[in-house]
Design brief:
There is one protein chain. By secondary structure, the protein is mainly alpha-helical. Helices cover 67% and strands 0% of the residues. Helix 1 crosses helix 3.
């Protein structure tokens, strides 16, 4: 007898909340930034710091590929989100959650 019941009956009725989505996206952006820093560190180990003085490297990085400016923009977006979300997190921790109460509607 095969009964088609969901494994977790509470998941279909679960509504995502701001307090649960902000930390998840904060961790995702932090992991992305750590990956970028680690890859840049490995590049510096492999090539060496002397390569950053050559003009040909900059011409290759900024003029030959369309993928690099897009990745720089995505990294800047992740960095700004991670920074502002961290500041928001610190403010809500030290202010007694005043900022989270402002956006909520009053229930009667």
């Amino acid at each position: 007898m095969n009964i088609l019941r969901p494994l977790s009956p509470h998941l279909p009725i679960y509504k995502p909340q701001l307090t649960s989505t902000f930390p998840i996206s904060h961790r995702i952006s932090g992991a992305f930034l750590v990956t970028i820093v680690f890859l840049f560190y490995l590049l510096c180990l492999k090539i060496g710091l002397i390569c950053f003085t050559y003009e040909n490297l900059y011409q290759f990085l900024f003029y030959s590929s369309k993928l690099i400016p897009i990745s720089v923009e995505i990294t800047a977006l992740a960095l700004s989100y991670h920074l502002y979300n961290g500041v928001r997190h610190l403010l809500t921790d030290f202010s007694g959650f005043i900022f989270l109460r402002i956006g909520r509607k009053r229930l009667k």
